[in-house]
Amino acid sequence: xxxxxxxxxxxxxxxxxxxxxxxxxxxxxxxxxxxxxxxxxxxxxxxxxxxxxxxxxxxxxxxxxxxxxxxxxxxxxxxxxxxxxxxxxxxxxxxxxxxxxxxxxxxxxxxxxxxxxxxxxxxxxxxxxxxxxxxxxxxxxxxxxxxxxxxxxxxxxxxxxxxxxxxxxxxxxxxxxxxxxxxxxxxxxxxxxxxxxxxxxxxxxxxxxxxxxxxxxxxxxxxxxxxxxxxxxxxxxxxxxxxxxxxxxxxxxxxxxxxxxxxxxxxxxxxxxxxxxxxxxxxxxxxxxxxxxxxxxxxxxxxxxxxxxxxxxxxx
Length: 316
Prior knowledge:
The protein has helices spanning 2-18, 33-38, 49-56, 63-78, 96-104, 107-118, 120-123, 128-147, 160-169, 182-199, 234-244, 258-263, 286-290, and strands at residues 82-84, 87-89, 249-252, 280-285, 303-307, 310-315. The chain contains 13 helices and six strands. The termini are far apart. β1 and β2 form a beta hairpin. The chain is 45% helix and 9% strand. It has three domains: 2-78, no CATH class; 87-148 and 156-221, no CATH class; 229-315. The protein is α+β, with helices and mostly antiparallel strands. The chain has a four-stranded mixed sheet.
């Protein structure tokens, strides 16, 4: 228990140091905090929020860390438009993150996890409390994430993976590398599979999807947003246009903002969802094409997948 308390204290000082050892408390409600929170989602705080907040405000140090936690909480409670398996929702699904884990995690990790559970008695640490510290935190974190209404990407549950990696790492104790048995060969195959699976997705690291999804190019059918694209394809769009001498282009790619697109000479008209065109090349992000963005009418035209998260639709 003392070790746990010590870890919490060390973690707090690391956070404090990350914010420049700021000892400033968050602003009062009257200083504009409520306006900042409401900008994240349509969410009405409980009636007793103001009184509780004013009492604990002086100890919420550093201010930006705790204000960020509250903003994330408000966002999660208020919801956000998201996409999953052909559906769109503003309040999410309880199973969103389990599905995300299923398709965004290399398959060998699941096999190692099953081995860790089946042979738990053989590979567990002598101190069972250490094992609980690897098992319970990610379960609790995932449970809270499943309650969230802002289902935006696997990045929201990345903290669970270090626990999983440490937990499954002990499966190496099941293998005797001095004896080349089936188990040893199988273990090596799993490691090679993991390596090849991640290597072949390069340079589409953000858009990584495992073989269950058909790889990165099949991911847009399952998940979008930051699971697939977060503005990283600007250079590839520019190269594709130049290499294929495209003309009469409309660009629906709103991740980076107009200034960034102009900086990289991607000065093309945006295509409003309610405007139909003819004889045009529409370059559009997969998130806009398959989501509830009003571009359903483009789906009847031939399309080419430029990157896992960007399509060229030839409107003719």
